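INFO  loader      accepted 1 record
INFO  loader      residues=444
INFO  predictor   begin
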Amino acid sequence: MSQENTNVQPKSMKPFLMLWSGQAISLFGSQLVQFALIWWLTQETGSATVLAMASLVGLLPQVLLGPFVGVLVDRWNRRVVMLVADSMVALATVALGLLFWMGSIQIWHVFVILFIRALAGAFHWPAMQASVVLMVPEEHLTRVQGLNQMMQGALNIVSAPVGALLLAVLPIQGILAIDVITAVIAIIILFFIFVPQPENQHIQSAQSLREFNREFQKDLKAGLRYVWSWPALMMIMVMAMFINLLLNPAFSLLPLLVTGHFGGGALQLGFLESMFGLGLVFGGILLGLWGGFKRKAVTSMCGLIGMGLAALVVGFTPPTMFYVAVLGAFVLGYMNSFVNGPLFAILQTVVAPEMQGRVFTLIGSLSGLMSPIGLIIAGPVADTLGVQSWFIIGGVATMLMGITGFFVPAIMNIEEDREHVLAAEVESQDAPLPSETSVADATI
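INFO  predictor   done
INFO  writer      dumping tokens
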């Protein structure tokens, strides 16, 4: 993939908003498909293990390939990466639609398509995130993240009930066709916008496979050293790993909480997910207008505590009080905006643009590594003990992580350490890898 000449155009919100709009439309179609496929698996099997496996295959590309994908995203043209990823999603959805139309669909077919879509997302997400900082003025980064949270919430509000209604009037291949159309819209928009590249982005000029492999390994090691030399980032990853291990499986099993614990159907599931989305919208609006506390880490830690409390509410709700779980889902979404928005704004501000692809995917891979482990355990255990137990365990863990963060100076001072992080970029070129040093020797 060739590189476009970068930084020739000043930062402007207009190209970003065009890109953002196209991706929002595509995400709407993707969420309709996700809802339809998960509900189909729930109706076909009624098994927590099957739902856990569906989530697992969706996580594997990010977990296994994340660090390598980050290297490629930092080397390749990011707009082309997004174009190819969106095209893969569209083609995979067409194939799945044909299988449903012919009546030949099997559960393993759904797993394969979910894997392909996740593989495309593993490339698309870091390319999109790493492009934001080069397209948006720095003073608007937190507000853009608030906008992202608001969009995610709005999509959850609309897509879940719309998906439930469409399942009542359309065959599932009709919903898949909608996803293909929305993906094509995103692809068309990408053809008409300029996505800047980092100034010192590597140009793929290797003349042989051996040379390319050497350069690839060099970039991968540089990304590992960069993260290893930043203790605050390492601590955030550890926190994310524990939360993903204990809380994420609960959300993968949400359909069974609705059908098994509350005795509901697709509309109840859609309503619960919509309230989570509504919370995201309100949280995103407030974050976009307010910007959070002056110290962004404080905003994120408060959000973690709130998410933990809300998860406990959902976990302890009796079967006859569904409306309480709905309130808990709303607070979960509301607080989620205050966790993710400021955190991404911090990373986009302090991490060098040419390193962001590697850093984002490395964080996603290491933290995401815990989700498959949690899902492998959660499926059989939930079949035996009930899904709500995972909301309780995850809620306690999330709340404790948020409280602990206030007592860790490296996390609280991560924004003030920007100059030290910039200095670490130079040191990381010659710094030893984790296997060559100890955590006690790592300094910012």
